[in-house]
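Schema walkthrough. Field components (list of strings):
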Amino acid sequence: MAQPRVALWAAEADDMDDDLQDMSLGNYGQNGHYDDTFFQQPQIDEATLMAMQQHMAQQAAFAQIPDVVKGFIVHFHQAVLENNLPEITIAYESGWNKYTEKFYSRTEWPEAEIIAPLVNDDPIFLILYRELYYRHVYSRLQPNIDDRFHSYENSCELFNYLLNSEGPVKLELPEQWLWDIIDEFIYQFQVFCTWRSKVKSKTDDELLMLAEGGPVWSSYSVLNVLYSLIQKSKINEYIAAHQAGKTPEEIAEIVGEYGVRPLYRHLGYFSIIGLLRVHVLLGDFTLALKVMENVELNQKSPYTRVTACTVATYYYVGFCYIMLRRYPDAIRTFVSILNWIMRMRQYHTRSYQYDQISKTADRMYALFAICNALSPSRLDDNIANISKERYGEQFAKMAKGQEDAIPAFKELFLYACPKFINANAPPYDDPVALNTLLQSSPDTSSPDFDSSALSDPAQRHLSLLLSDVVAYTPVPTLRSFLKLYTSLGAKKLANFLDADEEEMVQQLMVMKQASRSVTHVPGGKGLLDGQTASTSDLNFVIDENMVHIAESTVGRRYAGWFIKNTERTQKLYDDLKNQPLPPPSKSAGHGANGAGAPVAPVQTDVKPVRTGQPKVAWGGVKVGA
Amino acid sequence: MASWVSPPTRTELIEDLVSGVDRYNPSNVSILEDYLYHQIRSQEYDCLANLAILKLYQFNPDLYNPDVVINILIKALTAAPLPDFNLCISLLDERPINASLDEPDPLPTLLPTLKQLSDLLYRCRFPAFWEVYQSDELENLRDNYTVECVGFEDAVREVAIRAVKATFTRISADRLASYLDLSGSELVAFVDKKGWKMDANVVSIPPNPDNQIEATVVQENIKLAQLTKVIAHGAST
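Field assembly_structure (string):
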């Protein structure tokens, strides 16, 4: 039967029969005269034509996937289905990255629809696959507006599945992946906000989509996800119960069916850190520290297994302290994490996160330099040295406190600060307002463009820090003068500084103020708590017009050196005593040699004069003992 | 510091709001705004609750009430040298253009002034502060806002007193007068109320941890535990 190929796909048999009637009349294009009805086929055919083309495209794309990748996906899927945590971890950490490097370093992975047949259209695995797919797009390629919207929808589906299924899901995923899910979610939110605020560079299509976008990547929905995960997993109750030392049964009672599962517990904890980060990005530093109320920041906590999470936590906490003017606390935080990173570095050189951790560490060195300039302390020489190595030039300017200090602070702050975002979108849904905005913003290419400061939150926070810096700039000079005296008349000091006396007195009050900071005391509840403590070794007071100065110095530390060397000497003596006596047939000189040889390696690091040459008298003493 | 995080004057209702997720619910903004006005009238101060209001404004621009923001900033001024004022500024995102207000927004004109005042207080430029504050340009601020805030000027005087207490053991009355914007009998009354002594035009400030100084040498504290190994060895041979 002469059937045109297209009719095979037609949905409605009736129409097909009609067409058949016409076509079997021999108008099959042989004589060039086409029956019009042939081309007025119902829309169904067009749709199915497209479906067929799409299917063929998919098949072609599927065929293009290398076999190893297909095998990997099947294996990965199998591991996820079986909740085989070690296999999943391997597939996730090394497998995915290996094939990305090999085949997909510059393109996207195959779309979820294409690989769906390999995994029997398993919706959960496809959601997870898409999560990885979009993460790859965001990090290696440039996401377009469709990517952004779709990745949001996929994230919503994932969290919906996790939170709104009937009861906790049976899925088990490695901790690293769970942290990456949360981390990536917030990262995509942050880049979306930054991209969204650039009104000028939008195409018409994008403007349309943004106008109708509505809740896509809204602050409320992101916060909602994080708070829901925290509440569902009852992570705060879990931590409190753990700290109170309750038994596992009691803890299970308290946290409920979701909280006992490691998946939810980890997601809950990572959501707390996620909240810390989102609040900092939105400029709310006190709330950021407040959500960390129950979390104990120490490196023995069981949650430090995910390095990236720990590093992020300390970075954001330290930054909050800076904005709260609690520089000693910030310094302490940075020193602690930077030391930890140095120790952990050896385990991470092969990890794909190494770069990210190094970059964050570098920013923390910059922030440390800022804090050290504003509140000098002698806490950790090692970290201070590394910081000076990297930022010595800026640090010198900042510490001197003259006019050069301001640009140096600005440079380091803008390099090291988080990528702040605006909570609200420009008015895409209101064309009139949008036009006003576009016209009112001046030319961004002029170098003196200062009102960009308004729409860029980072500038706003920078200006707050700079106003503090300006208050501080005369202090280093004052310090250097005060160090030279025990008491000094105000008038005399003013003469030295070439300044007005009253102004200088006020500056002294600022200096006094700067030497007092709120610091966290051990045993204090939560990160916001603290007491005022003195942070400077130079103390002074003004008696009407006389400045009295008292400096605290650190006495010379000799105990360590003496104890260490005493112990070494004792060990050496013990070793010597335990040496076998020299064979009596040899001469005394040789005997001493025999005794000398094993001792030689120990001798090199002992301070007292003990030459390599054996002494006959020594050997003599031995024999006598 | 604990009382800054959780002031004893905060009610349980506010505590629940500030510490929980209800703080994001826009319909709760009026509770927090009422609490602000209570603080203004009764000379109380609760920084975190006020920051919660600013956060609600950040997410819901249509809730924005410029008078509330100005009052929050005024209250934060009196907390110097704590960073409260800066924390408030951090939460003031740029206003979207299509925001609808019945009257023109007074905040953009007042904000630079308030920032300047905060700056002067942080840099302890108290005479300059009073000069700027009493000047004609700030008449709007004084007549419409700070007059509502009970005890605003006294609170600023407290800021000055905090700085003076830390730095001086004795201070000339004239200098103190310029810091407090008080003179003559008013100054005497103020000093009296504080319980400080004044004679021959010099005010004595009672000792406190900040204005008592002594040169200390941080001595090394050698503990017995560090020496046990050495001593034990010496004893055994």
